[in-house]
Amino acid sequence: MAERVRGVLAAKLDLVLRLAGDSPHSAELLDAKARLFGDTFHTFTADLRRLLTDLFTEAGTPAAVEPAEAADICIALVVGLESVSDAPQLFTPATDALLAGLLTRPVSECTSRVTTRGGATSGSATHPA
């Protein structure tokens, strides 16, 4: 289950990093308040939230955290990573730490091989297992 959640989060982060890196108009593309694409990006994030909520409902979360809250926490992590230059390198250790607290099944039971654009997977030279 951890790998599935990581895949969803990696897709969001990769999309934002790709748009930010490839377009001189990335602010207009990514800004939720922008006229042309704000609604599209908001809908995309809402769809990801629903997907994550479903995944956490299936996997189970600690009693103190509802599945929708777990989804919001994950999205907040990715939004934070979107603003730092070493996001691809931080993605795996950040999601490992976060999911260790949000999943009722230990993260170590799932082997992570999810990578963001330019990032390293866990178990690599950059992020030893």
Describe this entry's structure for a reader.
The chain has five helices and no strands. It is mostly helical and 129 residues long. The protein has one domain (2-109). Helix 1 (2-22) runs antiparallel to helix 3 (38-59), helix 1 runs parallel beside helix 4 and helix 1 runs antiparallel to helix 5. The longest helix has 22 residues, at 38-59. This is TetR family transcriptional regulator.
Number of strands: 0
Enumerate the spans where pLDDT stays under 50 for 5 or more consecutive residues: 110-115, 120-129
Number of helical runs? 5
For the largest beta-sheet, the strand count, sense and barrel status come to: none
Shape: globular
Structural class: mainly alpha
Residue-averaged pLDDT: 78
Rg, rounded, reads 15 Å
Helical coverage, percent range: 55-70%
Summed up, the domain count is: 1
Question: What amount of the residues lies in strands?
Answer: under 5%
Helix-strand topology string: HHHHH
Protein name: TetR family transcriptional regulator
Sum this structure up briefly.
This protein has 5 helices and no strands. With 129 residues, the chain is mostly helical.
Main attributes of the structure:
mainly alpha, 129 residues, globular
List the helices and strands and how they pair.
Blueprint: H1 2-22, H2 26-30, H3 38-59, H4 67-81, H5 87-102
Helix pairs in contact: 1-3, 1-4, 1-5, 3-4, 4-5
